[in-house]
Amino acid sequence: MKKVGKIIGKTIWYLFEIVLILYVIAATSLLLCTNEFGFTQFDKTTVVVVDEDTIDQLSSYKENDVLLIKNEKFDDLNVGDKIYYYDTLNNQYIVREGTIMSKDGNNESALYFLEETGNAISDQRLIGVHEKTYAGLGTAYTIIKSPVGFLLLVILPIFLLFIYQVYRIIILIKDSEEE
To answer: Is the full-model pTM beyond 0.70?
Structure first.
């Protein structure tokens, strides 16, 4: 019976290690996949957190929502579509939303004119259209991306896992020397 408990304990520990390693890979990819505007971007999808700086510009969402914005080409966007684009506020890039009033250009170079302001947005500042919202996950996402969060939630667990593995190797070496 003691052997069965040991096997179950080891299995649970190995599953924990696998989950931890997958989590570390995911958290690290959030940091490494940052575009030139400072937002996480995977292929054609940009991750945007609605925070206190952007809540006024993204009024249809609640603070701490995580938005997935999918990049679209000129031909796929139509007059009346709600788009998301980069803008600056206090020397930082933020995300704003607007509705296309008209557009000019092609898939290579385009300008989008917005109904709300009449301003023109170049295709290089365009993010795309809303794909999905994850309500309330913004705080967790922001903590994971912060330097302290990365240290406490990624580096420290991996370091502890490494120390535990070194300990296990030392125990195995001692056990093999005793036999």
So the answer is: yes
Over residues 106-154, the pLDDT tens digits come to: 767 788 888 888 888 888 888 999 999 999 899 888 888 888 988 988 8
pLDDT for residue 167 is more than 80: yes
| CATH number of the domain located at residue range(s) 43-136 in this protein | 2.10.109
Q: Which two tokens stand for residue 25?
A: 């890979």
60, 48 contact by CB (below 8 A): no
Q: Nearest to residue 121, comparing CAs of 108, 131, 110?
A: 110
46-63 pLDDT, tens digit per residue, is 999 998 878 888 878 898
Contact 119, 140 (CB under 8 A): no
The C-alpha atoms of residue 158 and residue 141 are separated, in whole angstroms, by 19
The answer to whether 112 and 103 have CB atoms below 8 angstroms apart is yes
In the chain, what are the domain boundaries?
1-32+146-179, 43-136
